[in-house]
Amino acid sequence: MATVRTSIHGYWSSRFVFVLAAAGSAVGLGNIWKFPYIAGENGGGAFVLLYLLCIALFGIPVMMSEVLLGRRGRSSPVNTMTTLAAEEKRTKAWRLLGVLGVLAGFLILSYYSVIAGWALAYVVETATGTFSGVTGEKAGEVFTNLISNPQRLLFWHTVFIVLTMLVVVRGVSGGLEKAVRILMPALFILIIIMIGYAMLNGNFMEGLKFLFTPDFSKLNPEVVLKAMGQAFFSLSLGMGAIMMYGSYLPDDASIATTSFQVAMADTLVAILAGLAIFPIVFANGLEASQGPGLIFNTLPLAFGQMSGGLLFGTIFFILLVFAAWTSAISLIEPAVAWLIERFSISRFISSMICGVVVWVIGLGTVYSFNSWEKIEVFNGTFLENKSFFDLLDYLTSNIMLPLGGLLICIFAAWSMTEKSRREELKIKHEGAYKVWRFLARYITPIGVILIFLHVLGILEKLNLVT
Ligand code: PFF
């Protein structure tokens, strides 16, 4: 007999809606804002290659494992892990995996919302014509003025948190489904238009070369860690967001196919965003490694010069906000669902509590770009020169998410019985099942652990690598 559990929070109306919602979670600032700037900071091609490897070797197996656990547990990650650990006769400590996820969700959303606030501010800037005929210098000034003004950042951060909570309060099927159906395809079309512009007016060849010619001298353990972190971040893995969404997945949907589709869509958007941005960077003599401001300093130049740029630019930033919005919802949904289950409170109260907590933590990021640029307590350590934002980003993307993903794979591929795994995954093709099991059992856990050890310098100390 298959295990039959029901979700008290609702279901997706179809498999297709799950793919849209999971893609909505995956595609966000991570693809359009973060991927280009960390690829730029870490030398381009070699980073991109590592990133793609991480998606294939870690991303897809973890995503399948995460959906598997979610659909079997049918509740928030904390309770899913509690239920499954009991069912598989494993230690109760597995619930801490859910707790780690909830915590990561709070921390990520706290800074994610500030950056989404930049996009909101840019909707207004673009729509009011700030960028018409703009020069690189002027565009840079507009961005600096924004981030050096804590009041403005705080305002937009607040607006974004309120927007997110408005959808979360309505629950999955009421709020999210409607949003993703239209917005995702629209965003895709706009990125294609941007690439068209970059082809005609940017230095397209230079952009291609930068993204796809690996220069391995740029590689070091930190770059490998960042590529791995970015793969987890971009696919929304390792913190229970996809587990939560998996818990709303109808019983008959194929986990393998849906996971694959989501990973493909997400990767495609990241690469396309790179193709839209770097040609403009090189054509205008901008710095590819300038960091988090990259798209905000680059895209306005394109919008300022192209005909119809005011309209396109405004729509672009609106869609970027929407992409961030659908991701933000998934970042906080595990926490909201858990509070509802744990304290039997209403969705409204739970959402309010989560919203306020995230808003408060977000203040750290608001001040990271102006009065509180560096945290001095860490001077002399490897965290020297990092701001609160840098620290949160490093801790969540590069440590918490890969750690969560590693544990998810261990539970799915080792701790569950073979029967439970097969029953839930329902992969008809034996070879495909074995590939997943091999990756989730060996490649992902060993790969993630090796990368951690490499960064800590432990492999070097053991003379295992030079
Ligand atoms: N994947 C999102 C992005 O690329 O913007 C960010 C994210 C959402 C990370 C949900 C983690 C998560 F659980």
Task: Describe what is shown at a glance.
The protein is mainly α and 466 residues long. The protein has helices spanning 15-26, 29-41, 45-73, 77-87, 95-127, 136-147, 150-170, 172-201, 204-212, 221-234, 241-246, 255-283, 294-305, 309-343, 347-368, 388-415, 418-425, 430-455, 458-461.
Describe this structure in words.
- About 75% of the residues lie in helices and about 0% in strands.
- It has 19 helices and no strands.
- The protein has one domain: Amino acid/polyamine transporter I (Up-down Bundle), CATH 1.20.1740.
- It has about 475 residues and is an all-alpha fold.
- The mean pLDDT is about 90.
- 4-fluoro-L-phenylalanine binds next to helix 1, helix 2, helix 10 and helix 14.
Secondary-structure class: mainly alpha
Give the termini distance in whole angstroms: 53 Å
Biggest beta-sheet profile:
none
Specify the overall morphology: globular
CATH topology: Amino acid/polyamine transporter I
Number of strands: 0
